[in-house]
Amino acid sequence: MIKIGNTEYRHGLFLAPMAGVTDKSFRALCKKRGAEGMTTEMVSSKALIFKDKKTNALCEIPDAERPCALQLFGRVPDEMGRAALLVTKYNPCAIDINMGCPAPKIAGNGDGSALMKNPELCGEIVACIRRYLDTEGFYDLPVTVKIRAGFDKAHINAVEVARACERSGAAAIAVHGRTREQMYAPPVNLDIIRDVKRAVSVPVIGNGDVTSEEEAVHMLEYTGCDGLMIGRGSLGNPYIFERIAYYLENGTKMVERSDAVKKEDIIFHMTSLIAEKGEYTGTREARKHIAWYIKGKPGSAALRDEVNRAETTEAILEVVEKAFGEC
Ligand SMILES: Cc1cc2nc3c(=O)[nH]c(=O)nc-3n(C[C@H](O)[C@H](O)[C@H](O)COP(=O)(O)O)c2cc1C
């Protein structure tokens, strides 16, 4: 059991934030299938301050998927503090700071993973958000950070960044064991996750390439981390959370969910995605999820071609029907 702020997590199994993927509909499904905690897609502190409408939609957290943290990106401490106050109205379980995004349009601006070049600034951002929250009485709302191993292999400084954030009041630290330079390429550096765990006393969440029960146990045992954050391993496979929980509790693997259950889950996901985003955007976003869900199924290449042309809810569900059989 781990505790962040006032929220307790049985195994500390978190869905990693993924922009363009972990929207409300996917978070709801992962929650139903065992994810204990979520984070919104990253939200720009600047856009919040400028009251961008689309940005506000990213911040909404339906009750069914709580506890859910809200992730901010930015590099100006005062803006991050003001943005954190603005999002308190969505009642997140934590304000998380993105210190890991490698995308050129984010890191190139000095946000996300670029923050790791300056540990002192990382600490200042945490402290400034903490100050804004405390001033308005949000003492119990934790500030957490999500970092990488470092910016590049010559600067593996996650321990220094984690210490600076802890000193400034961070309540938990998620560590993706890769540098920015690596983007998403292997290997994941488990040693740095272990070193961060040894260096701080707040909970540490390990992240990177956990796609199975065995990899989950290996990361937990090797690094001593308190919980796991799973990103790409959940794509097309929201069952990974309940499977890992089952394995941790029983030492054996959970029987695979039937195609009928999977089909029901996918229909739930797709219909809520399309309801949330409208048919035009929803069906286009649904395509990549369907491709992940049908991976490995007989005839998946042809079905993928078909779904990539789908423009209506019916056309999307028809592909699901073909892949998972009639109910
Ligand atoms: C499509 C995509 C979008 C992502 N968006 C975010 C994001 O908004 N915020 C963030 O902190 N990390 C983001 N990440 C990084 C993931 O949270 C995670 O750290 C990374 O994928 C490594 O974990 P994994 O190997 O389990 O996928 C993203 C990753 C992917 C693949």
Overall description:
- The protein is of the alpha/beta class.
- It folds into two domains: 2-250, Aldolase class I (TIM Barrel), CATH 3.20.20; 259-324, Non-ribosomal Peptide Synthetase Peptidyl Carrier Protein, Chain A (Orthogonal Bundle).
- Helices cover 46% and strands 15% of the residues.
- It is built from 14 helices and eleven strands.
- It has helices at 24-32, 45-49, 53-59, 77-87, 104-107, 119-135, 158-167, 190-199, 213-223, 240-250, 259-277, 279-294, 300-307, 313-324, and strands at residues 2-4, 7-9, 13-15, 38-39, 43-44, 68-73, 95-99, 143-150, 172-179, 204-207, 227-230.
- Strands 3, 4, 5, 6, 7, 8, 9, 10 and 11 form a nine-stranded parallel β-sheet that branches. The protein has a two-stranded antiparallel sheet with strand order 1-2.
- Helix 8 (190-199) links the parallel strand 9 (172-179) and strand 10 (204-207).
- Helix 6 (119-135) runs parallel beside helix 7 and helix 12 packs antiparallel against helix 13 (300-307).
- The structure holds flavin mononucleotide (FMN).
